[in-house]
Fold this sequence. Notes:
This protein is mostly helical. It has six helices and no strands.
Amino acid sequence: MGRWDFLYELQPRAAIDVLLDEAAKAFAEDLQQWPPPLEAIEPSLLGVIRGPRPHRLAYVEAFRLARLDLEHEYEAIESWQQDGWRGAQLNEGERDAAVFLWRYLSERTFDLNEALQSRLRRRELVALIDRIERRFLAPALA
């Protein structure tokens, strides 16, 4: 077997899949830091980002909220904000962190789409959130 024979077995990948994978990798790396890299800090967020790193459940809920946001499920988001966060077993600090992370994920996703001149469809943006979540939470599952 030659050195490059393995290339014959590789499956071609669509450019969009490569883009989403690379973006998910970069976003997941940013989320490894607390707080994640921010361009500007609103004074109202200082309490959240100066606190300890949120519990894993806050991240799980942030991914869920980001998906709901991209899918325009505003009633579900409102329900979560009213009392659903308690069902997710979050305390008030973790709720605030989940909301911050949800907004962070949404902003980063929309920033990417804007940089691509809005070439990504909503379902692709949701797929990006799914990929970020898998990459970010995978080490915790192992």
